[in-house]
Amino acid sequence: MVDPGPPVPETTAPKSIAAPAASRASNDAQPNWEGQILAHLERFRRYPARARAARQEGTAFLRFTMNREGQVLSATIFKKSGSFDLDRAALDTLQRAQPLPPIPAGRPDVVELTIPVEFYLRR
């Protein structure tokens, strides 16, 4: 699982803001394609203003298939965060992030991945 970095401070504007970038993929993971996918998605994650105002937190797990060129072919919430707004934001993250890093040689032309998208506020 990717360390989401420090939480974004609460604000009243803008409608949605970029979440903080992760400083690394994991404590001792070697750089790999899955880590590149997570890091890429992290740059496109936005905390929904309505969820922030309601202090909603959680992790949505997305399951999606993608082609070799990095285009998402299908996506669904595999495990809900407990907040409709956060689940929707997780799916929106995937859409904004296209194209994803392409599938490396030696892997199938279409792959299915399940990834976490985390939303947590500073306490």
Polypeptide structure, described:
With 123 residues, this protein is an alpha+beta fold. It has three helices and five strands, in the order βαβαββαβ. It has helices at 33-42, 49-53, 84-96; strands at residues 16-18, 46-48, 58-67, 72-79, 110-119. The strands form two sheets. A three-stranded antiparallel sheet has the order 4-3-5, with helices on one face. Strand 3 (58-67) and strand 4 form a beta hairpin. It is elongated, with a radius of gyration of 14 Å. Residues 8-16 and 20-30 have low confidence and may be disordered.
Concise synopsis of the structure shown:
With 123 residues, the chain is of the alpha+beta class. Helix content is 23%, strand content 28%.
Beta-strand content estimate: 25-35%
Biggest sheet, spatial arrangement of strands = 4-3-5
**Main sheet properties:** 3 strands, antiparallel
Q: In sequence order, what are the helices and strands, one letter per element?
A: EHEHEEHE
Structural class: alpha+beta
The general outline is: elongated
- Distance between the amino and carboxyl termini: 21 Å
DSSP, total strands: 5
Q: Percent of residues in helical segments?
A: 10-25%
